């Protein structure tokens, strides 16, 4: 039995490495002029699906590697995307969505508290973590607020699992709904940035929808992610957890710096920024494979029905609320 288990693990690792190598080669081949007809099939949603399929069928092959690599590769990719954006256009997009961002963050936290604590009776910390992840930027917000809240590992796992499941669904469903509703690039980018939890899925959905949607979604989402800092301090005040370290998402500031460099220093050589941006998109695709490969059957089992229901209901409220804002205001 032990020998069979080791054999299965070895086979799983072989499949994992094979999938990773194939995707990397496809993305590298895409740099060859004229090769795009043969490589265009590898999109962010496809990479996520491959990761999910592997995790659910074979289990997690390298969980620590997946987690660490996806975290840093996402940050580097997001910074790289900044080299493809103009600062003035980004500020205009961020300013336009700022008022609703403030309203939605505060509103989501309050509605999440009501649904989780009053309706479903989810434990305090798990409910608060799910609300935080939905209100701001998914796993990053949960990872930042959790230590301040002094949440248990089990509570963190349940909250992260809930948000992760909904993120995976959103990456596939949102572009389809956007096309069905006939949303413009700007409308979809705004909707995705506010209604999808994690930055990775927001950027992935935006990239799947179009160039302008990607720019709008990334800018608004990262502006929204800055709310991690005040939320952590408010959490510390509400739950009396002074002295806890607040995790600041520094990569957001490097993203802004990249936009500044692209806008003012690379105007004479736009191909430099375009090349970095192109590489960043390829990095994002691989990132989504790593993220998908992190969702195992054990993660799904740990979620439980009540936290998942809270996450789904809260997600529906913010998704429909954002659509109403986009079409009526």
Automatic annotation (TrEMBL):
Name of the protein described by the UniProt record: Putative membrane protein YeiH
Xref: Pfam families: Cons_hypoth698
InterPro entries the UniProt entry points to: UPF0324_pro
Topology versus the membrane: Multi-pass membrane protein
Residues passing through the membrane, by range: 14-35, 41-61, 73-91, 97-116, 128-146, 158-181, 188-210, 222-239, 246-266, 278-296, 308-328
Main location class: membrane
Keyword Aminoacyl-tRNA synthetase: no
Cellular component, GO annotation: plasma membrane
Keywords, comma-separated and alphabetical: Cell membrane, Membrane, Transmembrane, Transmembrane helix
Organism from which the protein derives: Bacteroides graminisolvens DSM 19988 = JCM 15093
Compartmental location: Cell membrane
Family per similarity comment: Belongs to the UPF0324 family.
Superkingdom of the source species: Bacteria
Keyword Transmembrane helix: yes
């Amino acid at each position: 039995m032990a020998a069979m288990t080791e054999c299965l693990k070895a086979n799983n690792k072989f499949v994992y490495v094979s999938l990773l190598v194939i995707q990397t080669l496809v993305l590298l081949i895409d740099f060859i002029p004229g090769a795009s007809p043969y490589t265009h099939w590898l999109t962010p949603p496809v990479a996520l699906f491959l990761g999910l399929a592997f995790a659910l069928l074979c289990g997690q092959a390298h969980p620590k590697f997946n987690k660490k690599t996806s975290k840093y590769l996402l940050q580097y990719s997001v910074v790289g995307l900044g080299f493809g954006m103009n600062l003035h256009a980004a500020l205009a997009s961020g300013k336009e969505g700022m008022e609703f961002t403030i309203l939605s963050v505060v509103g989501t936290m309050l509605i999440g508290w009501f649904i989780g604590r009053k309706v479903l009776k989810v434990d305090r910390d798990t409910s608060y973590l799910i609300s935080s992840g939905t209100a701001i930027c998914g796993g990053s917000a949960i990872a930042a607020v959790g230590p301040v809240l002094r949440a248990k590992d089990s509570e963190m796992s349940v909250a992260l699992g809930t948000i992760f499941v909904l993120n995976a669904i959103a990456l596939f469903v949102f572009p389809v709904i956007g096309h069905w509703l006939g949303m413009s690039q700007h409308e979809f980018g705004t909707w995705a940035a506010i209604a999808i939890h994690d930055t990775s899925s927001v950027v992935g959905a935006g990239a799947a929808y179009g160039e302008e949607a990607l720019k709008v979604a990334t800018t608004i989402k990262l502006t929204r992610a800055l709310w991690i800092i005040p939320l952590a301090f408010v959490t510390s005040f509400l739950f009396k957890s002074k002295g806890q370290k607040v995790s600041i998402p520094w990569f957001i500031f490097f993203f802004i710096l990249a936009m500044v460099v692209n806008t003012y220093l690379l105007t004479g050589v736009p191909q430099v920024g375009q090349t970095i941006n192109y590489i960043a998109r390829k990095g994002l695709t691989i990132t989504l494979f790593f993220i998908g490969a992190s969702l195992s059957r054990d993660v799904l089992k740990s979620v439980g029905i009540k936290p998942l229901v809270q996450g789904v209901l809260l997600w529906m409220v913010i998704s429909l609320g954002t659509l109403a804002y986009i079409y009526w205001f």
